[in-house]
Design goal:
4 helices, 147 residues, five-stranded mixed β-sheet
């Protein structure tokens, strides 16, 4: 694993998971952060995103709602976790807080954070307003039930 293939801790939107893997969250309405583009992206949107020029997965997820297919979200997050060992992975939605924060909290659960602590973990390390709605918080708390 070469360092130029990974995000750097402290870069805009970069979340350090308990395993040390780094994943970037961002809002697609914001300008692309400077530096390298991702090698793999997960896009949480109500409609299909454009081709970004790198490998990606689309999870149908309307704004302020929950993912249309929670099992598929889990599958994509597991792939993201594996890829983050040696690739720059980003997770993004329109604003970068609600859906992105929810997915990052679920990713943290898959990496070992207890479900009851995952929202706090992401709010402390990614964005203080991540996981915006009560149903998104409930989704995170019950994420292990979506197997």
């Amino acid at each position: 694993m070469r360092n130029e293939q990974l995000w750097r801790p402290g870069e805009a939107g970069v979340l350090t998971l308990p395993s040390g893997r780094l994943v970037r969250g961002r809002g697609l309405r914001d300008p692309m952060p400077s530096g390298h583009p991702p090698a793999f992206g997960v896009y949480l949107l109500g409609g299909k995103p454009p081709d970004f020029g790198w490998a990606s997965r689309w999870v149908r997820w309307p704004d302020f709602r929950l993912p249309a297919d929670p099992a598929y979200l889990r599958e994509v997050l597991l792939e993201s976790l594996r890829r983050a060992e040696g690739e720059r992975v980003e997770i993004a939605c329109g604003g970068g807080r609600g859906r992105t924060g929810t997915a990052l909290a679920c990713l943290a659960i898959l990496d070992g954070v207890p479900a009851a602590e995952a929202v706090g973990y992401v709010r402390e390390r990614y964005h203080p307003r991540a996981v915006e709605t009560p149903w998104q918080r409930r989704f995170v708390r019950n994420f292990d039930a979506h197997r």
